[in-house]
Design goal:
Layout lengths: L1 H5 L2 H26 L4 H27 L6 H18 L7 H27 L5 H19 L2 E5 L2 E5 L13 E5 L4 E2 L7 H19 L2 H11 L1 H6 L4 H24 L4 E2 L3 H4 L1 H14 L4 H17 L7 H17 L1 H9 L2 H24 L1
Antiparallel strand pairs: 1-2, 1-3, 4-5
Helix pairs in contact: 2-7, 3-7, 3-10, 3-12, 3-13, 4-5, 4-6, 4-10, 5-10, 7-10, 8-10, 12-13
């Protein structure tokens, strides 16, 4: 405890967050082993992890860099399809699941980062609504290109077509991997809750360390005052591109987790379209722009809430909307912000503990008398 107090506030908070994640993981594993967790909750464990990764990675662009991006679903889509494509192509040649899955994860992150860098060079010269529109267009372009793409493999190598599967002209024994709007089917479901938790911790560790590094302080300086940052010698383009690329890479990791958690990967508007990007942005805004821990909490709550309100049928989305409004008010209303400052959680917990200790000592005194 004394060592924990000796650490700075940021490090201490990060250790606490990682500890909470590990405790939740252990509790979930115990409940699953005991058969006390519902099938619905077990099916949501992996989505909770990759939605949290998407939220904290977008927060790096929106909250830390201060740029509005609506193309995060596009980077997730790139990572998902590249990872699934590699897995399908190497199922027979790479028998070790851990090696194959690890390479697919790395490939998905690298490809998403590459596209993030290429797009970032162009779009990061824009600001505000213009940047949001261009990144939104990028996400839609990626989705539509994948829906029109046919890729097959045979003993002669890869075959690519934008017409149909027959135009691939595969040799005997060849296989269609990407089948246009039908996507990729039959991908092995290698993503487990343990892997998803480990990737969440890894992504959280990377982003938090970036924020607390010299590069992170330069990125936040650009967010706060671009002209002042440039006047002291900060390379605006370099650091903006760094944040955008890392954010895209983390979205690619979430995409690989997603693609290896389902049997059929399809680039539909629901999975990788505009609504997905908006939902990730909602996680960021409601969790607090620039608040990495808050993004995880918002992603978990807003993912669980609609599923556990399904018994209310048509009213569940109404309740979901009300909760969104309440969270928005609690996070951004000036009166609520002032109340949180005057009544921090730590102070409230200490007062509750003191009251319990006082009541306990009073009871002991009464017994002694």
């Amino acid at each position: 405890m004394t060592r924990l107090k000796a650490l700075n506030k940021s490090t201490r908070n990060n250790i606490i967050v990682l500890g909470i994640i590990l405790v939740i993981y252990v509790i979930c594993r115990i409940l699953m082993a005991a058969g006390a967790m519902s099938n619905l909750m077990q099916g949501l464990l992996v989505p909770l992890c990759y939605y949290s990764i998407l939220a904290i990675s977008l927060n790096l662009t929106v909250g830390i860099l201060g740029e509005l991006s609506l193309g995060h679903a596009g980077f997730m889509c790139i990572g998902a399809f590249m990872g699934a494509f590699f897995t399908k192509c190497t199922e027979n040649s790479i028998s070790n699941v851990f090696i194959r899955y690890g390479i697919a994860m790395l490939l998905g992150a690298v490809c998403a980062a590459l596209f993030g860098g290429l797009i970032g060079v162009v779009v990061l010269r824009l600001r505000g609504d213009y940047l949001a529109i261009v990144t939104l267009a990028f996400g839609e372009i990626v989705k539509n290109i994948i829906n029109a793409l046919y890729v097959g493999i045979d003993n002669k190598g890869l075959h690519i077509s934008l017409q149909d599967a027959a135009a691939l002209k595969l040799a005997e024994g060849g296989e269609v991997i990407v089948n246009g709007a039908k996507g990729i089917t039959g991908t092995s479901r290698d993503t487990t809750f343990t892997v998803a938790i480990l990737m969440l911790i890894l992504v959280y560790f990377i982003i938090v360390n970036l924020i607390n590094s010299r590069s992170g302080r330069a990125i936040m300086a650009i967010r706060d005052n671009r002209i002042a940052a440039e006047s002291v010698g900060i390379d605006i383009t370099r650091f903006k591109l760094l944040a955008f690329t890392i954010s895209a890479a983390m979205a690619g990791i979430a995409g690989v987790l997603y693609s290896h958690n389902i049997s059929s990967l399809v680039a539909t508007p629901k999975n990788f379209g505009y609504n997905m990007s908006i939902m990730i942005l909602v996680f960021v805004v409601l969790g607090g722009v620039g608040n990495i821990r808050g993004s995880i909490v918002a992603a978990v709550i807003l993912t669980l809430l609609p599923e556990y309100l399904r018994f209310l049928a048509d009213y569940r989305m109404l309740i979901y909307a009300v909760v969104l409004i309440v969270m928005m008010i609690f996070n951004w209303n000036p009166a609520c912000i002032a109340w949180r400052k005057n009544h921090p959680i730590k102070g409230v917990l200490q007062s509750v503990i003191k009251k319990k200790e006082g009541s306990a000592s009073g009871k002991e005194g009464g017994k002694a008398s």
